[in-house]
Description:
With about 375 residues, this protein is an alpha+beta fold. The chain has helices at about 5-10, 10-15, 80-90, 130-140, 160-165, 175, 230-240, 250, 270-290, 295-315, 330-350, 355-365, and strands spanning about 20-25, 30, 40-45, 50-55, 65, 75, 95-100, 105-110, 120-125, 145-150, 170-175, 180, 185-190, 205-210, 215-220, 220-225, 245, 365, 370, 380.
Amino acid sequence: MDVLRLRLRDEFEPVAVLMRPLPVRSETYPCPAPGGEGCPRRVTVNRDGRMSAVCGCAPRECDAIAIRPEDTVVHEFDPKRLCGFLADRLSLTASAETVTGEGSTWSAGTRMAEPGGRNVFLLIGGTPAVVANGLSHLLTSFRAPWTALIPTFRSLSVAQREMVLQHGSSLLALEDLIGADGSGDLVCTNNPLTPGTPAPRQAEGNLFRREQDIWLLSFGGQTVRFRHLAGFEYIAELLRRPGSEIEALILAGRAEPDSGAVVSSGIDAADERSLRQVRQALAERRQELAGLREKEWPRRGALQSEIAQLDAYLSQAAGKHARSRKVAGSVQRARSAVAHAIARAIERIGRDHSGLAEHLRNSIRSGNTFLYLPAKPVDWRF
Length: 382
């Protein structure tokens, strides 16, 4: 009985086909009755060559037991074996190749029964963040619909599922797909990759939403997705407040540290009007922060960052009696940076969605302030 077999007990045999032994030996051995500090047992080799597992506690809490060399075998999960197993059970043209540098996303094969073939990917990340990054990579790297096999749905947000559906792709949970039969053999409990699966629903209405490092945009019945650019954040803020003129400094307050347009000591306070708008934006963010639900951590973090930046600007720009005063640099630098970022974002949108790009060019006005004013009202979801 090797180490992994002892730990998994009856669950080892079904998954043994997905493991490979390593050319190293374990230096520890699971204790059958774990006790104090020092467990598990330490593997020792006696003078006569025989091996023992010795209690690591001081004083010892259990007697040493004799073990064999094969009892110290170390196994490792083999993604290629799992890809091969899935390809065989799901009737895929096998490939078993990694598609990301860190090796957490694999190509399990292609479902040739569908027109043009459908790629099937395996995400084996141990944390929700790794799975989310793998899905983001697939969404931006593969235009054709695909199927992703993930460990579980439990750590996946509703927004993440929606992004995959908008792409025309699908998700399957390994915990619902793989199990052991009555003989203890590993099997696929069903094969959901069959022709005639209902088409995924399309986006309803107009959408301008960020999910981690991916933006999901839908307009005029067409949906596209892009990796994050600072200009998308500025555009989203303008879309949230149609008809409202917004200072570049306020938009820059929503930027990320590497965007080049963060409020800093190198930007001037232009006038009292600018200060009033910054104060209004600060009050709005504090009010939104106070009304957030307990588990809305991503939005909470973003608001706290924006509030800190706007507070920093006001402390620099306002004098003792809240009158504007000069600080080093020029407000024009912020306006130019924001305008450039918006233009770059619209240019990127135009490569895949000319209709949305044209709408934004015609509706966003830039100058001393920025304004989203469409010819006809547009209902946006975020």
